[in-house]
Amino acid sequence: MAGKIRITIWNEFYHEQRLAVVKEIYPEGIHRALADYLENAPDLEIATATLYDPHQGLPDDVIEKTDVLIWWSHLKHEEVSDAIVDKLHRRIIEGAMGAIFLHSASGSKLFKRLMGTTGGGKWREAHEKERLWVLKPGHPIVDGIGEYIELPHEEMYGEPSNIPEPDELIFMSWFEGGEVMRSGNAYTRGKGKVFYFRPGHEEYPTYYNKDVLKVIENAARWVAPLNAPPSITTGNVPSLEKIKGFHRDGHGNRIESV
Amino acid sequence: MAGKIRITIWNEFYHEQRLAVVKEIYPEGIHRALADYLENAPDLEIATATLYDPHQGLPDDVIEKTDVLIWWSHLKHEEVSDAIVDKLHRRIIEGAMGAIFLHSASGSKLFKRLMGTTGGGKWREAHEKERLWVLKPGHPIVDGIGEYIELPHEEMYGEPSNIPEPDELIFMSWFEGGEVMRSGNAYTRGKGKVFYFRPGHEEYPTYYNKDVLKVIENAARWVAPLNAPPSITTGNVPSLEKIKGFHRDGHGNRIESV
Amino acid sequence: MAGKIRITIWNEFYHEQRLAVVKEIYPEGIHRALADYLENAPDLEIATATLYDPHQGLPDDVIEKTDVLIWWSHLKHEEVSDAIVDKLHRRIIEGAMGAIFLHSASGSKLFKRLMGTTGGGKWREAHEKERLWVLKPGHPIVDGIGEYIELPHEEMYGEPSNIPEPDELIFMSWFEGGEVMRSGNAYTRGKGKVFYFRPGHEEYPTYYNKDVLKVIENAARWVAPLNAPPSITTGNVPSLEKIKGFHRDGHGNRIESV
Amino acid sequence: MAGKIRITIWNEFYHEQRLAVVKEIYPEGIHRALADYLENAPDLEIATATLYDPHQGLPDDVIEKTDVLIWWSHLKHEEVSDAIVDKLHRRIIEGAMGAIFLHSASGSKLFKRLMGTTGGGKWREAHEKERLWVLKPGHPIVDGIGEYIELPHEEMYGEPSNIPEPDELIFMSWFEGGEVMRSGNAYTRGKGKVFYFRPGHEEYPTYYNKDVLKVIENAARWVAPLNAPPSITTGNVPSLEKIKGFHRDGHGNRIESV
User: Fold this and answer.
1) What is the pTM of this model?
2) Which of D147, D169, D178 has the CB atom closest to B174's CB atom?
3) Which CATH superfamily is domain B5-120+181-257 in?
4) ∠D76-D77-D78 over CA atoms, to 5°?
5) Which of C159, C162, C198 best probes binding to A when mutated, by most A CB atoms within 10 angstroms?
6) How many other C-beta atoms lie within 10 A of the C-beta of residue A2?
7) Min CA distance, A238 vs chain C (Å)?
8) Which residues of A touch C180 (CB under 8 A)?
9) Any idea which fold A5-120+184-229 has?
10) Whole-number mean pLDDT of chain D?
11) Where is the ThuA-like domain (chains A, B, C, D) (predicted)?
């Protein structure tokens, strides 16, 4: 990106307004915790949006100014407007925007649309330890991260999960209770880049963890669109080489031509 | 598969009934040309279905007895019932069925749902030569195939295309007019396997080509579900290891427990 | 394979002859424990070989009759003859043979040659539990396996490891002590297939575990060469299409030709 | 990289000094043509080295100051010192250096060591056209590149080739004579990144093509090591979780401990 990367952090913002335990940790919402950190990066420009804002926080002019979408949702996946999902999906495929999906956003309409699977899987709330081990130590998303990230308490998600094989598998989670989970998954869809990052149950202060925030910051730069992406032609294209082709006459019959 | 692999070949069957040039090549439809060949394999059990059959050829009892779905469609993608697409999609994700998508079936509802992208791309009808080069010469899908398959006349599809990076890229097409295309693409979605195979424009006798048929036969065995797939638990699961967890009291507050 | 798959199980066979604890578990060697199980499969033909046999168990006629090589080694990697490694390597690349590497065979000359990395990594002997979670539940290598394989006691290997990203990542290990490891890794090298399977420390009865044995049996079929692999031309090839080329005169100057 | 990326362009520099046709195109060598372009980038610091320099251009202090190695070789692969190859290989695996291999450098000792295969394949000199089609239009290596790069005359390399499946396949070449080739291949080996870029036969002015140069520039940034890579522990590691382990007594017998 030549200028700043314009990031929109979208949050369902449901639990934080209703559950005391969540409100205590994220009094202004998960989106604000993320924004407070990301605003320190001079190359990033941060906006936030929630389900309860007008147009669910994503009117057309916001979508069109978003280079990177960060998405957190859990209970209200189905309330997100299909029309908005369509626009976001198209924007990613066209390479105008990248996206980061956090934790339970694996069940969001947009993520499932991009992945081609149905979501769902194993989970457990048992106040257990998670370690996210780095599998690709040379990848820009883990710049500044050690061998693993440790979170003292997290919700568990477990394999086998039906998300597709990522183009690059960057983190694998170990859980105290006995499971593993693909936890940092990089995908390309069309010209757009997508990163799924597992941690972030709303009842834990995960989004204050320095390593978790650093990964999200790195990922924002990684999914950001190119400065000069190719403009790709679609539809019926002429031949690049001279070949004998044909056209059709008024009856739909083929007539050879050069 | 312990018994025979039960294959359902689904065909839009539109062009063959309306265009003389197509009817001449496939008088009983593309599905019958494929069936005629595949019925020779003693381990395969073949059925066919078309858009114009009752229930679009896919009533529940047919879906439930299909191990491998072979799909050809072009102009009538959008007429296929959403309810049927939902059922087929779920069956693939659950690993009860594999699927092979042929040629323009890349634009079908089901394929786009599985891939997460929007379809579309470059194409050209110019009576040109296609060569499908083998990129993974050890893969079971190319058993019995030489270095490449040559088709004297085919429709061109060209890169860049927005289909996702396959788990395994098995064929790459060379076109006389100057383009290339990922043409034999293997994917896993959930527990199900999916193979996309590019050639097969309705105006050419592609589905009589011995190599093309052999690839479809090989692919049918490759996408077929396992004899004994794992039964995967989902939802809230207990801890495999003893850890200190918690439950909630009547007010939604967490209470620690072992 | 049209006939039986001819398997050669190669074992270093060092510890079993020297350490009481190992001899007690594998009195005739790890190779015999594997052979005893695999000999039950009617489509497999089993031979064994060890470092202490003439020609290190791998004279040319044995190599030339091996479709699948299963390899276990630990302390004596460097004693294996370079000439034998060259022959085995070439046979795999040419697609005449597949290979399965077990446990510490990740440090063998042949495996490192195939992978392009240096081996080495984290390990610990702490009598701890390992769970191998299935990540690709539709893959033929896990046919008949549940969600995970549990081994009550194993040696730990931990990530990050420098083995390359596998073409397919089939198992991920969870260790009681806090680590994870890519544990069932499928690779293609040239026309040959390679599978790395982590468990099998010599001081534990891992190779009597029914699931471990089933995976090795499945993998043997998966890495076995094709019935009819393509015969690939190399070197200077003529043009498939008519193009204006050139040859050289006696002075090395280019002369155009058609 | 916090400071400049230190690039060493290594060239065999054989043909340019001996063949008139090559000398005419690259009078100071391929390395200088590349350097002339790359020196314009303010974030890159360029040095060159050749086979005929003392220590083959790669004494230890040069290796230790190289962040990115660019390698061109053809006829003199085998003359490169094994000791140098060992050092370069280790440096890549450790993530201290990335590498770009150009054209026939696919046959170099270092590239074959990293890939695990034997090199070799189809080739043809017929003055034919090459098009490199972009398969991953969102990848940083193709920033600023259109749908394809066209080279009016190049040497052909053809599939099937025995190089391993890349982690990311970025370019696919189309050749006038009828072949295709994986032409822009990204790999990770250990913590290091490797990019293979096909074009660049010495008898054509390929390394003056703006798109080819731009790809090499982009790739140099992409393979460059991280600012803060994880320092990875290897060898015998203590348990992260409390588990009951054991040590050995003076006789090699295991004694349980906590």
Assistant:
1) 0.96
2) D178
3) Class I glutamine amidotransferase (GATase) domain (3.40.50.880)
4) 90
5) C159
6) 5
7) 20
8) 131, 133, 172-174, 180
9) Rossmann fold (3.40.50)
10) 94
11) 6-223
